[in-house]
Amino acid sequence: MTSSSVTAIHSRDNAFVKDLRRLAQDTTAYRKQGRVWLEGDHLCRAALARGLRASVAVFSESFWPQAQVEYARAATKFIVLADALFADVSGLESPAAMGFILDLPAPASLRPDAATVVLDRVQDAGNVGSILRSASAFGFRQVAAIKGSAALWSPKVLRAGMGAHFALDLIEGLALDDLAALQVPLLVTSSHAGDFLHRAALPWPCAWVMGHEGQGVSPALEDRASLRIRIAQPGGEESLNVAAAAAICLHASGAGR
Amino acid sequence: MTSSSVTAIHSRDNAFVKDLRRLAQDTTAYRKQGRVWLEGDHLCRAALARGLRASVAVFSESFWPQAQVEYARAATKFIVLADALFADVSGLESPAAMGFILDLPAPASLRPDAATVVLDRVQDAGNVGSILRSASAFGFRQVAAIKGSAALWSPKVLRAGMGAHFALDLIEGLALDDLAALQVPLLVTSSHAGDFLHRAALPWPCAWVMGHEGQGVSPALEDRASLRIRIAQPGGEESLNVAAAAAICLHASGAGR
Predict the structure, then answer these.
(1) CB spacing of A198 vs B233 below 8 angstroms
(2) Which positions fall inside the MRM3-like substrate binding domain (chains A, B) (predicted)?
């Protein structure tokens, strides 16, 4: 038997609540606190399914009667917040009724031979989360984020990632030169050069580079690419959303292997 | 020679400003006002490139000296707002320095034989905008949104669409039965049935159905599909982001035709 504790909190000024509010609402608070905030049952269940356990499980008061049955084994420390307080901490337009605080996984180091997605200053949290989902779905093992990319463990990226974080090794804050450690071929998309993706023979494993929403992949990184690949756009639109382009490229690499 | 007017506005309570604030910040205000708000030079230039013209062009005071040269032909009616007022009207975290008010295009009717993307209650504005970009890039002609999908001409969807709106016929507020008018085969993705996309022979033109972020395609619509297609996910993730799935499917249909 393990013992567990349940604490009810009603005050906005409680120290735990203040820290949690920061964790839930500040994009990079997880770096200072060394822990992350997973809000909503989908994300929490995804963490449990990967064998992770919450360091603290947090529930709204009205969900607690049901939660203490459903989530009895999810943590040893439970916090119950008044509903309005939970909503205040969450900061979401539609706050969930639960969340987990999880210790931030120890930083992985870049594996030279792993199928990789490189994020070259991708800014938008929704895009980054979507790319993580695609990476995980198509068999990539690690995501390497160049300094200037969205913070990978921010609450927004976690929500958009829908659990993909737990299936990948995530390395962030890299300099361009750190990528020299990668031994797999580097692939970039180009609007004007290279083979068309739907006809190209793609190496596996490989590292796909996805670039900044406005500026694309930085020239220094493009120069290091082994392969430039074009996505045929018969409609002639000037560019795709970066997460859409990533989905197409990662699928092409992953499917049919 | 055409005559043009320039009006400077400094008051938050000005009637034009109040209407514009609603147009810029309320998701569905365009339906009442019969006009849409394009914020930022990228979106405005995309409209101009398609031969559209602003009914009113709006600039921040500090951008006006440059704008009156660059955008002299974009409209006949120009409004200049104090910078703080422009920011207040915009509501964006990083407000642009300009925007166009455009008359809402007359509603198109469903073309039975056109390559189509059907949005079956896709909720997220960023997803819908990304899907519109992919649709346009891969040669689809019309997007048909079932009632319950995000409002297609909302400012958020317009921003995420990056100009794709102007290359497509957009029909919204459809009932499921309205789709009976489509003569092209209906395609849906399935997690468990059908051919794998990367091996499938896809008909062209066709109509791809993209479903609600949580619930997927409604069963009634799935029943009408001519073809079910699976996206191979060797990584075993449970699902892709809907805009990512759309990108993969639309690319597969469009590229190499």
Answers:
(1) no
(2) 14-97
Say which of B126, B136, B247 has its CB closest to residue A248.
B247
Q: Are residues B214 and B177 in the same domain?
A: yes
Both B73 and B144 in one domain: the answer is no
| Average pLDDT estimate for A134-161 | 97
B114 pLDDT more than 80: yes
A152 is in which domain, residue-wise?
A: 116-254
Distance CA A21, CA B43 (A): 36
Same domain, B98 and B130: no
CA of B234 to nearest chain A CA: how many angstroms apart? 5
Task: Say if the Cβ atoms of A238 and B163 lie within 8 Å.
Answer: yes
Point out the residue among A199, A237, A244 whose CB comes nearest to the CB of B244: A244
Residue A165: which CATH number? 3.40.1280.10
The whole-angstrom separation of Cα A116 and Cα A250 is 10
List chain A residues with CB under 8 Å of B247: 240-241, 243-245, 247-248
Residue at a domain's end among B53, B70, B103? B103
CA–CA separation, A207 vs A184, rounded Å? 6
Percent of chain A at pLDDT above 70?
Answer: 98
Break chain A down into helix, strand, coil percent, rounded to 5: 35, 25, 40
Separation CA A39–CA A42 (nearest Å): 8
Q: Which residues of A touch B232 (CB under 8 A)?
A: 251, 254-256
Beta carbons of B244 and A167 less than 8 Å apart: no
Domain edge (last residue) among B103, B130, B155 = B103
Tell me: do B86 and B27 sit in the same domain.
Answer: yes
Same domain, B61 and B137: no
Total number of domains in chain A? 2
B82–chain A Cβ distance below 8 A for any pair: no
pLDDT tens sequence across B190-221? 877 889 998 899 999 999 999 999 999 999 99
Counting one residue from chain A and one from chain B, the pairs whose CB atoms sit within 8 A come to 142
Chain A residue closest to B50 (CA)?
A237
For residues B12 and B125, membership in a common domain is answered with no
On whether both A61 and A182 belong to a single domain, the answer is: no
- Mutant choice from B50, B241, B250, B253 vs A, greatest count of A C-beta within 10 A: B241
Q: Would A110 be classed as within a structural domain?
A: no
With 0-12 / 13-18 / 19 or more C-beta atoms within 10 angstroms meaning exposed / middle / buried, residue B45 is middle
For the cut 70, the answer to whether the pLDDT of residue A2 exceeds it is no
> How far is it, in rounded angstroms, from Cα B126 to Cα A160?
11
Query: Is A244 in contact with B130 (CB distance < 8 Å)?
Result: yes
Residue A111 belongs to a domain? no
